[in-house]
Design goal:
This protein is mainly beta. Helix content is 0%, strand content 54%.
Amino acid sequence: GLKDGRYFYDSLNQILYTAESQTTLQVAKISDLTSEIKELSLHPNENVKKIALYNNRMYVASSNNRQFSIWKHSPSLSGFGRPTLVINDNLPKQAEIVSFGIDGNIYVLFGNNTLQKYYKGQKQDWGYDANNVPGNDKYKIMKVGEEYENIYLGSKNQISIVSKDGEFLAHISLPSISELIDFAVDESKKTIYILADKKVYAFVYNY
C-alpha cells in the first residue's frame, strides 16, 4: 500500500491508513505504535487506487475502462462497510488518478496535471488551469483538506501552492534535491517539510 501510494495519513489524530489488499486496511496509531487490520467492503465495480478519510468515513478512488469513481464507506464493526457511490465521471485522455483529497469538496488530481473539483458529486467550474503549470513538471503529490487554507501540489523538483478557487499563488523550485518523495505543510509557520534523498528539509515560504 505504501509503495503504490494507497495510503492516507490522518495528521490530526496521527493515524496512518494503508490498503494492504483490496479488502483490508492496516490502521497504525503513530502515538502508541499500535496497529490493527480493518475490513473494507467493496462494490463489485470498485477497486482501490487511492484512499482518503473525511468525517470518519473512508473514501476510495477507483478507475476502470476510461472512467473513474469515488465511493464512500461508513464505519462498521469490522472496519468500513458497504459503499455509496459519490462521483462517477470520465478520466481525462491518457491520464489516471494520481491523488485526491476532501474538505467538503472533493479534489481529484490526474497524471496530466488536470485538477478537478466536485461538490455533492457534481463537477465544479473553477479557476484552475493546467496550462499554468511551469515547464514539463508532472504533479504526483497533493495536500488538501479542511486543515489547509490552500492546496499544495508536488512534482519531482517543485511545489506549487494553489488557492481553493483554483488560482496559482506560488511555484517553489527545489533544485537542490534529486526527487521529492513526500512533504508536509505547517501553514501557521509557513513552513514546508520535504522528504527527499533520505533526508528531511525544512524551508519557509512566502507569497
